[in-house]
Structures are given as C-alpha cells and as structure tokens.
Design goal:
Radius of gyration: 19 Å
Order of helices and strands: HHEEHEH
CATH topology: TolA/TonB C-terminal domain
Largest sheet: 3 strands, antiparallel
Number of domains: 1
Number of helices: 4
Shape: elongated
Number of strands: 3
Structural class: alpha+beta
CATH class: Alpha Beta
Distance between the termini: 65 Å
Length: about 100
C-alpha cells in the first residue's frame, strides 16, 4: 500500500508542472488526507493543507488518489496523510558554463 501511495504522489508532479505553465514561480505544500477501508477502497479523499492555492492543481492531484488501491489493510479503517512538497527544480549547471570566455582582441 505504501508503494502505491508513493507512486500516486509522484504522479501528482504532472499536475504541478501544469500549474507552472500558468505560474512559473509557484511553490508550496499540499497535504492529501485519505480514509481507506480494509479492502483498499477510498472512503474519502481531500486536501487538508493547500499552500499552492490553486483548485485546479489540488483536484488534479486528488484525482490520482481517488482510485481504489490494490490490496488490503489490516485494520477496518485507516487515515493517511500524504504530504507533498512542490518546489521548482534547480537549473542544472554544466562545467562549461562556469568557464569564462576568452577576451576578444
């Protein structure tokens, strides 16, 4: 179950990338709260923290978590908080960009 939650969290990155097309500097945390029954069925899914403040992105991320999970849990019901942190990727630097160009003569 833990692996499936991690996979869905990673899929949520595509929702954040869509947000960046509209707002290139947006960053923040999003916490998804899931209530699962013993059969892996999602009884409820919602957002308990949304620093991105973008309903479209929140709904997109939630969409990945609303599908039933494969497998079962040992309890009759469990509540899971899934913290997600969306940050801009740092640009990759190459060694050649650090070198100074020769002076023109």
């Amino acid at each position: 179950m833990q692996h499936q939650i991690a996979e869905r969290a990673a899929q949520g990155r595509s929702c954040y990338e869509n947000l960046l097309r509209r707002d290139p500097k947006r960053e923040g945390r999003l916490v998804v709260i899931l209530k699962l029954s013993g059969t892996g069925t999602i009884d409820s899914a919602g957002v308990s923290l949304d620093e991105l403040a973008d309903p479209e992105t929140s709904e997109c991320v939630l969409g990945y978590f609303k599908a039933p999970f494969n497998g079962s849990i040992t309890d009759t019901c469990v509540v899971v908080n899934v913290p997600l942190r969306f940050k801009l990727k740092k640009p990759e630097s190459s060694d050649s960009s650090d070198a100074k160009a020769p002076a023109a003569s």
